[in-house]
Amino acid sequence: MIELLTLLWLFNAAQPAQSTLTAQAPQAEFPAPADNTNGFTLKFTVDLKAFTGEQTILAIPQVLDVRLRQHAPQDRKRQNYPAFKLPDGTVPVLEATLQLHSAGHPDWQHMTIGIPLAMLKQPADEHEVVLNFSGVRWTLYVDGALLDNDFPFGYPRWAEKNTWKLEGGFIKQAALYAPAIQPVQEAQKSSSAPVQYWTPPGHNSWVGDVVTFFQQGRYHIFYLYDRRHHQSKFGKGAHYFEHLSTTDFKTWTEHEAATPLDEQWECIGTGTPFVFNSKFCISYGLHTGRLYPQDQTTWPAQWDYLKKKGRTGDFRRDTTPGVPAGSTYAVSADGVAHFKKTGVMFHPCQNPSVYTDPSGKLRMLANAGAKGIWESDSIDSGWHCIHEGFPPGGDCTFIFRWGSFDYIIGGFTGLWSKPSGAPDSAYADQVRQGLDFYDGSNVPAITELPGGRFLMAAWLPIRGWGGPLVIRELVQSPDGRIGSKWMPEVTPGTDTPKALATNLSGSKAYATGSKTFMLTFTVQPSVAKQGKLGITFLPEHGEAAACELQLDLAALRAQFGPGSLSSFAGRQKSLREGGAPQHAGNYAIEQLSGVEQPFTVRVCVKGSEKFGGSLIDAEIAGHRTLLSYRQELTVKQLLFRTDGVELRQVQIAPLKP
């Protein structure tokens, strides 16, 4: 369970309001704020009574409008409002649109934040709403809770004289403050949630790229906090690292953000946690090129120095001309959390994977804009390339050693391995041999625990970039091949299981009784390494959204494919064959192991209004896992189909909340 860092945000104004409105005086004029870069705060009390259609409830022409509207219950684009529906199935929403202006991107103007009213405890009651523009954030608070935000580029353009007004009688009183009020944070009683398949609270919040580390008895997960599936900041992402940790894998702690966004120019990409000179650090990339032309950033100076000197120079935010770009890092003040940004730009690549190798040398795998293995005696400068061609610079690469083998995992699709004593040139492509362990999870990070255990953490895509957190435990065979299994400490708990069948063969259907459940059974092949079985996950009616999990023992393959009432799904492609497990849809995995004798299969199905469908997670013989996300599928029935195998002790159990 995760003990969440829950905050109440208090907006107590130290200055008088710039202007106020009431039901008796619903319109007023006010002068332009003295400095619009200092932001503004708008506080109002709203009665969310019933309404139809779309209703503007507050407007500042050419600057801001606040409205209520009925959202289409099937439309999950951008904001995922249908994650919260009223009992009658409708999705009323409260939205605020800010109009911004910037010289660099004149087309980036309208920035909308909003919430589905059903996420409020008493939607129809009176609520205090705060809209806060700090320059860096455009945020919506309701009753002291932060419920949505985005990250602006540019500023409002105020008139010399501004008129604002209330409409429709929904708002009783409103007050505008400029400059913006700095909120006071007050810690509240923490709530908790299971860590496996977890997403941050809210309707549009997701886990992005995950990086992990273990030190001093504590396992750390840093994840890129995502809203809107990479569509924040006008589609540029605007991610930053949030932070979870645990000492026992049962109780998890949510810490303050490790690398919050502090400037409009910040756009953060993946890095790695590491320890160097006894300091706990996290590296990350500044994806400034998403916002500014390259010649306005520090990149030209960094690249010029590197090309001339053969190593990186000492570039710092406060002394280097141009908008900061490239690789930087933050340092923990206490060895656990409380990270502080250094302002050092130590390399021009945008996704730095910094690590210390087994001999203690400081190294980096360069990603996004560069490639190769780099080495330095200092984090801040002096990085020089010791292997130019490998690994190729992709999104994110991570390195780890397990016993007598070294591995590099390449973000979405790459995996290489070599004997630990061999040179870097000996890395062999495991994907080309069909020996990868990609299972639907994206950008996996791998960390060793005491006792020789290795964990993999990643995210599963839900309708785009970002989704729930997924944690695996890895298994290794004597020849160095790696597989994955469910980690016992984070496997979802279940209520009392129900027996579906003692022995099952042929074709049989069963009702699930729940949209979130765990299915368990033993596979008994009639002949070793022969036979096929399929489980089709069906909605209440029809088969349009159905999904099949299929195991082909003769071919040593497993796959997710389209479900059918009449036949097995056709053969899907593996990663080696050009398939796309990173999309978590239909794909295959190859060279199953542990299936020569009777073996156990476990399948976890998690249906969710936030997902708008179901996550299906399978573990085969404790050696391989595979995940799929199925849009619009709420599983109501299971159709078993077997050919040459028998299933024994088939059980189903609802997942605990």
Brief write-up:
2% of the residues lie in helices and 46% in strands.
Q: What does this 3D model show about the protein?
A:
With 657 residues, this protein is an all-beta fold. It folds into three domains: 2-186, Jelly Rolls; 194-490, Glycosyl hydrolase domain, family 43 (Tachylectin-2, Chain A, 5 Propeller); 498-654, Sandwich (Jelly Rolls). 2% of the residues lie in helices and 46% in strands. A six-stranded mixed sheet has the order 16-1-20-19-18-17, with no helix packed on it. A six-stranded antiparallel sheet has the order 3-14-5-10-11-12, with no helix packed on it. A six-stranded antiparallel sheet has the order 4-13-6-7-8-9, with no helix packed on it. A hairpin with an 8-residue loop joins strand 43 and strand 44 (547-552). The longest helix has 11 residues, at 299-309. The protein is globular, with a radius of gyration of 27 Å.
Low-confidence stretches: none
Shape: globular
Radius of gyration: 27 Å
Instruction: Give the count of structural domains.
Output: 3
Mean pLDDT: 95
Residues in helix, %: under 10%
Report the total helices.
2
Q: What is the correct CATH architecture of the largest domain?
A: 5 Propeller
* Named CATH topology of the largest domain: Tachylectin-2, Chain A
Q: Strand sequence of the main sheet, in spatial order? A: 16-1-20-19-18-17
How far apart are the termini? 11 Å
CATH class of the largest domain: Mainly Beta
Number of strands: 51
